[in-house]
Amino acid sequence: MAENAPQDWLERFLVGDRRALARIITRVENRTFDVPLLMQQIWSRVGRARVIGVTGPPGAGKSTLVDRLLEHLRARGQRVGVVAVDPSSPFSGGAILGDRVRMQKHFLDEGVFIRSLSTRGRHGGLARATRDVIHLLDAFGFDVIIIETVGVGQTELDVMKVAQSTIVVLVPEAGDTIQVMKAGLLEIADLFVVNKADREGARRLGNELQAMLHMRASADWEVPVLLTEAAAGKGTAELLERIDAHGALASSHDEPSARESEWRDILRDELSARLERIVGDGHLEGIARRVRIGEIDPYGAALESLADADLLAHLVAAGRGR
Ligand SMILES: Nc1nc2c(ncn2[C@@H]2O[C@H](COP(=O)(O)OP(=O)(O)OP(=O)(O)O)[C@@H](O)[C@H]2O)c(=O)[nH]1
Ligand SMILES: [Mg+2]
């Protein structure tokens, strides 16, 4: 059906059709072959949105906090896209569902778009997909894009690189500052939030974080430590003020160096995706068989493949749709 052609969805996307946005995000999530082509066609609209990352251990109150920020941003008339990134597995779908329920009061609001993204396909694909989705939301016209990630692993750290301002949310019971350092959160945090300040130990954790931050060489931005009670809406307006202040300093993702590194990331991702497609289609079966039966060693085989002009032709062809 012509109606389902990606190009048609793209045209609808460009006139502000939210269903088209959702459809294209699904293609990004599934890493379909036409994603780079689609992204190329929206690129001229990218670069205006403010991108905010929210990360921290499970249950810290990230979604509750995002919900509060949403309310403040909407009150100002800003349009907000929220991406909940779940690197763990399909099994934690419950948490995402919980987010959906919690945020459903925004469901009828045209100025809000909430979407969850989960792992599909290759390792590293999720960070790439998140970046693509941010560009899409940006091009669609959202003023602010908030990314929430669950947990504190490598994928989350990668995902957070896309954000201009990263908020690390901790809670008194989540452990001490040593763990914060071990998890690499000190490096990525532009703002620390100690949420659930109604609970015991919040102030102590806040002070410990402050002390730890004071040991760092001071730059042009002093990382603040804010205490919030997201559930009661306490401290969240001040948090947004601090996010704004950081935004005035934050670099754009449209800087020359950022653009170049993004190009390299896309190229790496495309090469490996196309290689998988080539292998899946059996184009390298001849040499794969020789490796299996021990006729050629894996290193020699890899070198032979790379010297084969046919491989290049297949890589080019694999970029075309089926
Ligand atoms: N006591 C207290 N509970 C809070 C506060 N903020 C959020 N909560 C509760 O903490 C629980 C988890 O909140 P979420 O916002 O779902 O936390 P999350 O970090 O998004 O959780 P995941 O996405 O599953 O990692 C919910 O029951 C909230 O109501 C707070 O300030 N104080
Ligand atoms: Mg959440």
Structure characterization notes:
- There is one protein chain.
- The chain is α/β, with parallel strands linked by helices.
- The chain folds into three domains: 1-45, no CATH class; 47-249, P-loop containing nucleotide triphosphate hydrolases (Rossmann fold, 3-Layer(aba) Sandwich), CATH 3.40.50; 258-317, no CATH class.
- The protein is built from 15 helices and seven strands.
- It has a seven-stranded parallel β-sheet with strand order 3-2-4-1-5-6-7, with helices on both faces.
- Helix 5 links the parallel strand 2 (80-86) and strand 3.
- The longest helix has 25 residues, at 256-280.
- The model is unreliable at 90-95 (pLDDT under 50).
- The structure holds guanosine-5'-triphosphate and magnesium ion.
- Residues 58-64, 95, 98, 150, 195-196, 198-199, 229-231 line the site of guanosine-5'-triphosphate.
- Guanosine-5'-triphosphate binds next to helix 4 and helix 5.
Report the sheet with the most strands, covering strand number, pairing sense and barrel closure.
7 strands, parallel
Number of domains: 3
Per CATH, the class of the largest domain reads Alpha Beta
Q: In which order are the strands of the major sheet placed?
A: 3-2-4-1-5-6-7
Bound molecules: guanosine-5'-triphosphate, magnesium ion
Helix content: 40-55%
Give the class from helix and strand content and strand pairing: alpha/beta
CATH superfamily of the largest domain: P-loop containing nucleotide triphosphate hydrolases
Poorly predicted sequence stretches spanning 5 or more consecutive residues? 90-95
Write down the Rg. Answer: 22 Å
Overall mean confidence score, pLDDT:
86
Q: What is the CATH T-level topology of the largest domain?
A: Rossmann fold
What are the secondary-structure elements, in order, as H or E? HHHEHEHEHEHEHHEHEHHHHH
Distance between the termini: 15 Å
